[in-house]
Amino acid sequence: MKENNIYVILHCFEYNGRGMEEELYDIADEVYMYPRKTGLKSFISHKPYIVKSRTSSELVRNLLKDNAPILFEGLHTTAILTSPELKDRLKIVRTHNVETEYFKQLYFASKSLYKRLYYLTEHLKLKFYEPILKHADVIMAITEKDKDFFAGRHPQVKTELMPCFHNGSLPSMKKEEPIGRGNYILYNGNLSIEENIKAVMFLMEKVIPFTNGAKWIIAGREPHNDIINAAKMTDNVDVCPNPTSEEMDKLIREAASNVLITFQSTGIKLKLLGTLFKGGHCIANKKMLDSTGLSDLCIVADTPTEIINAVNKTIGKAITEEELSNRNERLLSLYDNNKNIQILCKYIAGK
């Protein structure tokens, strides 16, 4: 947004004690940090924990220093949406997904009794909390499916589709950046969350042993012990824990194919965009591709047999220049950062 000559004041809550990061000034002119109110007191509130833990009277005081439009990034930031002091401000809520459905799917995916209790509690609280969106002036949905959902729930609020932004750059076949020339299959994601743990275990049990000895790399943040232990028992699997952004980009770019599967079709998976912008062949299931418009850019495979066949088909077949060219054209038609930011700017500029 700074590139569009818009002065950006960023208000954010600290996460896992990270504190201020200087890189934030690359996207914002001013940055304010607030502590999250974690713990039992926030958990027992009638508000969802993801919302209650992100409340701050100091935030309201800082927002009152000007009369600028307010962009709420995600439902979890909307605790002050109904604040009387802000009633005359333009309020835009960017939704990441349908949170009630997201937490319901996490509940079904988790094996931990404690986590299942948390996810179920959040799901129920969010069902009662979500009507707060009627106090927004604009809802910016991330997919057509989500847009239809919020427009149906809150017809009195203007609802727009604003596809997600990304840090991808279009792939090429430049000699110094080979695409798909590696001898391995890659799965990547945050390896500490239930959704991805379930996907990896599915691959290790029902797919990887049957891919003709192909090498697999499972890469991502904080691999769960279940993944580490299963990899030790599975031939041809390496776990790459906590790769840097540069290392992950290289893994994606050089993989013979990237396998992306999910068992919950909520929002859009940023790693799908990252893979298509940076890598070669992409094998994905229908839930990963739901409401993205990108099915024709991937090899769609749902069953273990379909995934195995797709892997065996792509392991020795590099993506072609023509395939990349067609992909680039389609990606830019749907996920062009410069074009999509204008959807937001027209409201901020009052057009």
**Mean pLDDT metric:** 89
For the biggest sheet, the summary is: 6 strands, parallel
Helicity range of the residues? 25-40%
Rg is 21 Å
Please state the second-level CATH architecture of the largest domain: 3-Layer(aba) Sandwich
Classification by helices and strands: alpha/beta
Q: Estimate the strand proportion.
A: 5-15%
User: Ranges with pLDDT <50 over ≥5 residues?
Assistant: none
Q: Can you tell me the CATH class of the largest domain?
A: Alpha Beta
CATH topology tier name of the largest domain: Rossmann fold
Total of helices: 14
Number of self-contained structural domains: 2
Q: Brief overview, please?
A:
This protein is α/β, with parallel strands linked by helices.
Helix and strand arrangement:
Elements: E1 9-13, E2 30-34, H1 40-43, H2 49-52, H3 57-63, E3 70-73, E4 91-94, H4 99-109, H5 113-129, E5 138-141, H6 144-153, E6 158-161, E7 184-188, H7 194-206, E8 215-220, H8 225-232, E9 237-241, H9 245-254, E10 257-260, H10 270-278, E11 281-284, H11 286-289, E12 299-300, H12 304-314, H13 321-334, H14 337-348
Parallel strand pairs: 1-2, 3-4, 4-5, 5-6, 7-8, 7-10, 8-9, 10-11, 11-12
Sum up the structure in keywords.
351 residues, 2 domains, Rossmann fold, six-stranded parallel β-sheet, alpha/beta, 14 helices
Description:
By secondary structure, the chain is an alpha/beta fold. It folds into 2 domains: 2-166 and 336-348, Rossmann fold (3-Layer(aba) Sandwich), CATH 3.40.50; 184-331, Rossmann fold (3-Layer(aba) Sandwich), CATH 3.40.50.2000. It has 14 helices and 12 strands. The strands form 3 sheets. Strands 9-8-7-10-11-12 form a 6-stranded parallel sheet, sandwiched between helices. A 4-stranded parallel sheet has the order 3-4-5-6. Helix 8 (225-232) links the parallel strand 8 (215-220) and strand 9. It is globular and about 65 Å long. The model has no long low-confidence stretch (mean pLDDT 89).
